[in-house]
Specification:
The chain has 815 residues and is an alpha+beta fold. The protein has five domains: 8-85 and 153-224 and 328-383, FAD/NAD(P)-binding domain (3-Layer(bba) Sandwich), CATH 3.50.50; 93-151 and 226-324, 2-Layer Sandwich (D-Amino Acid Oxidase, Chain A, domain 2), CATH 3.30.9.10; 434-449 and 664-688 and 722-815, Beta Barrel (Elongation Factor Tu (Ef-tu), domain 3), CATH 2.40.30; 491-578, Aminomethyltransferase beta-barrel domains (Alpha-Beta Plaits, 2-Layer Sandwich); 581-659, Probable tRNA modification gtpase trme, domain 1 (Gyrase A, domain 2), CATH 3.30.1360. The protein is 25% helix and 28% strand. It is built from 18 helices and 37 strands. Helix 1 (18-29) packs across helix 8 (352-369), helix 2 packs across helix 5 and helix 2 (62-82) packs across helix 8 (352-369). The chain starts with 7 loop residues before the first strand and ends in a 14-residue tail after the last strand. InterPro entries: FAD-dep_OxRdtase, FAD/NAD-bd_sf, FAO_M, GcvT/YgfZ/DmdA, GcvT/YgfZ_C, GcvT_C, GCVT_N, TrmE/GcvT-like.
């Protein structure tokens, strides 16, 4: 007789794949024994069971690399703990390059591995052929060897996690379908199943490819869609070496591993297809999908050329199974933004086996602590806009993630699907003037402006891309003349009501008792003194403020503010992002251009820095705030959409005698890095404290209303622990910085680049970087010593600075 379901639990986990079992295991191991895991069929029966089982420690970000590194540790110990062998073989991996750009990418990946102490070293073509004698070495330029990589058995690993969870007190129930997550008062309160209801304090959605549909029932967006994913297994191959490393040939779109005397080889498809667009069949369990040869023939031909033995070896298994892919290639991990105690771990893009153990631990740690214990901001469920959670968008966008898995991971790589969704009022006039657009949160944003007669497109490279000269000219215009930038897509949230000022005083670190017409840059902290966001706040009236956020964090900031409104507080939030077009006019000649068309006094005395005023440009009513993300004199001009093109045309005409130039996001990024201006999610996140960023000036601990996290801020500032953010500039003008390049003090890896660009005014690559001091070294002494940045395996001499590389006194902005 089946054991009856309990009526209550501390935590209910939905889904018995590797993620659900990992969360259960890590919760139970930490003493949370009242944990119930529910699986609709059998453990692993969704997508876990047919995974290829590759275990690679180096992933695309700091968080996912940490997950994978922990996963290897767990694989080495879980058999001793549970008696269940996870089938781990540490055979290593080799990634090969067949062109110079791929070799540059692999070398950069090896640089990144050094940050985590993961061994990764270059191999010549001859050395690769020696380790992988079945490979056709024609065209192979070299590759990267990672000895600690390998493979595991997905089912055995998941069963080991499940067994460990049970051993520590968790309960696991198979053949129980969750029909509904129950909620009350904005909180998850349990689940209703086909075998009864369980009341719970916490509900965790680890439902794999069902996670999206389950989340939709409660308005929780889980951005993933199942896509068809193929692999093949050969007949047994005589004398096949059992210790072959996993071989990855990204340009061929193929990976190979030895599998019990056979070769398993899988594909990163050049053309991917979404699966179950009308819903996943109720009966799905350990199912495979139809194998369509035409879908893989192009990649199969490349595979047979790379490993010629395949041309004379039979295929035992032609497999096609569903895998979940997200809209942006990132996990969804964390608490739902609009529903307390509802957590999600899903959409891991075919990296479940190598990342699942670590991701499950990270979520379990979050649940236990009540907050993330590491930086998981890239995976935040709140990054999702409402339109991105809809099936039509996900069906179009998610297959591209599969296609890009083995494609070149170019810096500034732009998606091609689901484009043109959100256009600013300046889209068409800027397109007519040569704008090449990128996409952020559906917004089409100019990246650079092509010269007349040139096609506005990106020719990707790890070297200087085709837009490099254009971006340099745009930077020069802002530094020496004047530039015009589309800022429309920045988030704009009105905070209104009789208690608006007191509310903002509580959630913001800076003093929000602003006079009407004043603007302030401020942080918002959490109770631990970490930075939840940085925003600009403008006071529009006695009971009206505008909070301005970066493009990709608008929803997250709105949710953060919403959570802090107290019962009975007269505070209303209103998103006005689409109500205004915004143009930034920046550069030493910005005042001259604006004075030619505005009907107000623009002198420094009449229109001060951090001030806001209403006036007219041409016939259009506008308001502008004197700010600049470029580090130069500038104004951010807000226009209603009906007048937007008119204002654009007036400014372009008035700016012509002053050499006004349109400026895109690539130039803006380099300008703000030169000036030391930060970007939340790149240069800081919620684990980082203001003193680490040099942002103490935004924190007013003595203001009348204490801000959230004040005591923690004061304590952390007094402790003074690093790492610290600094500016860095390469001495060699040739190499380029993007992000994640290791920063070295002598031979010691001291940190990494958080944001990189090429600074026109300094004539070299520049970056912001996190660096840790040596024992006995304080922040102020950091610039001392010999500094380097590791770029494609070479140590490039660099200068480190605790102040901005451009105009550290900020006199130009205030002039």
């Amino acid at each position: 007789m089946a054991k009856p379901l309990p009526q209550t639990a501390q935590v209910v986990i939905i889904g018995g794949g590797i993620h659900g079992c990992s969360v259960a295991y890590h919760l139970a191991r930490e003493g949370w024994t009242d944990v119930v895991l529910l699986e609709r069929k059998q453990l692993t029966s969704g997508t876990t069971w047919h995974a290829a089982g590759l275990v690679g420690q180096l992933q695309g970000s700091h968080a996912t690399t940490a997950f994978a590194s922990y996963g290897v540790e767990l694989l080495q110990q879980i058999e001793v703990e549970t008696g269940q062998n996870p089938g781990f073989r540490q055979s290593g991996s080799i990634s090969i390059a067949v062109n110079d750009e791929r070799l540059a990418e692999l070398k950069r990946k090896a640089d990144f591995a050094a940050l985590y102490g993961v061994e990764a070293h270059y191999l010549s073509t001859e050395e690769i052929a020696e380790r992988w004698p079945l490979m056709n070495a024609d065209g192979v330029l070299g590759g990267i060897h990672m000895p600690s990589d390998g493979s595991a058995n997905p089912v055995d690993l998941t069963q080991a996690l499940a067994k460990g969870a049970r051993m520590n007190g968790a309960q696991i129930f198979e053949h129980v379908k969750v029909a509904e997550v129950l909620t009350e008062g904005g909180r998850a309160t349990g689940v209703r199943t086909d075998q009864g209801t369980i009341t719970a304090d916490v509900v965790v959605n680890c439902a794999g490819m069902w996670a999206r549909e389950l989340g939709q029932q409660n308005g929780v967006g889980v951005p993933l869609h199942a896509c068809e994913h193929y692999y093949l297994v050969t007949e047994p191959i005589k004398d096949l070496p059992g210790d072959l490393p996993v071989l990855r040939s990204y340009c061929d779109g193929t990976y190979w591993k030895e599998d019990a005397g056979k070769l398993l080889f899988g594909f990163a498809h050049f053309h991917a297809k979404p699966w179950a667009t009308k819903g996943i069949p109720e009966s799905f369990e350990f199912d495979s999908l139809p194998f369509v040869e035409d879908d893989v023939m192009e990649v199969l031909e490349l595979a047979m050329n790379r490993v010629p033995l395949l041309q004379e070896t039979g295929i035992r298994t032609f497999f096609n199974g569903p895998e979940s892919y997200s809209h942006d290639g990132r996990f969804t991990l964390g608490e739902a933004p609009d529903l307390k105690n509802y957590y999600v771990l899903a959409g891991v893009n075919s990296t479940g086996i190598q990342s699942g153990s670590g991701a499950g631990k990270a979520l379990a740690d979050w649940i236990i602590a009540g907050h993330p214990t590491m930086d998981l901001s890239e995976m935040d469920p709140a990054r999702l806009e409402a339109f991105q959670a809809r099936d039509p968008y996900l069906r179009e966008r998610c297959p591209e993630t599969l296609v890009l898995t083995y494609a070149m991971h170019w810096p500034n790589r732009q998606r091609e699907t689901a484009r043109g969704l959100r256009r600013t009022p300046f889209y068409h006039p800027m397109k007519a003037r040569g704008a090449c657009f990128g996409e952020v949160q559906g917004w089409e944003r100019p990246l650079f402006f092509a010269s007349e007669g040139e096609t506005p497109r990106i020719d990707y490279s790890f070297g200087r891309q085709n837009w490099f000269d254009a971006a340099q000219a745009e930077q020069q215009a802002v530094r020496e003349g004047v530039g015009l930038i589309d800022y429309t897509m920045l988030g704009k949230l009105m905070v209104e009501g009789a208690d608006a000022e007191a509310f903002l005083q509580r959630v913001c670190t800076n003093n929000m008792a602003l006079k009407v017409g004043r603007v302030a840059y401020t942080l918002m902290l959490n109770e631990r003194g970490g930075i939840e966001s940085d925003v600009t706040v403008a006071r529009h009236g006695p009971e009206a403020f505008m909070v301005m956020s970066s493009i990709s964090h608008t929803r997250r900031d709105r949710d953060h503010l919403t959570r802090h409104i107290l019962p009975g507080e007269d505070v209303r939030l209103r998103d006005v992002t689409a109500h205004y077009g915004v143009l930034s006019l920046a550069g030493p000649k910005a005042r001259d251009v604006l004075a030619a068309v505005a009907d107000i006094d623009l002198t420094n005395e009449a229109f001060r820095f951090n001030a806001l005023q209403h006036f007219h440009i041409g016939h259009a009513p506008v308001f502008a705030q004197r700010l600049s993300y470029t580090g130069e004199l500038g104004w951010e001009i807000f226009i209603s959409p009906d007048f937007a093109e008119h204002v654009f045309e007036v400014l372009m005409e008035a700016g012509a005698p002053f050499g006004l130039k349109l400026v895109g996001g690539e130039a803006l990024n380099a300008l703000r890095i030169e000036k030391g201006f930060l970007h939340w999610g790149h240069d800081m996140a919620y684990a980082d404290a203001p003193h680490q960023m040099g942002l103490e000036f935004t924190c007013k601990p003595d203001k009348p209303i204490a801000f959230v996290g004040r005591d923690a801020y004061v304590a952390r500032a007094a402790e003074g622990a690093g790492p610290f953010l600094a500016s860095i500039k390469l001495r060699d003008p040739a190499p380029l910085l993007y992000h994640n390049e290791p920063v070295m003090q002598g031979d010691r890896i001291a940190g990494y680049v958080t944001s990189g660009g090429y600074g026109q005014s300094v004539g070299a690559a520049v970056g912001l970087c996190f660096v840790s001091p040596t024992d006995g070294q304080d922040r102020q002494s950091l610039p001392q010593g010999d500094w380097f940045v590791l770029v494609e395996g070479e140590k490039i001499p660099a200068d480190l600075s605790l102040t901005a590389l451009h105009d550290p006194s900020a006199s130009r902005m205030r002039s």
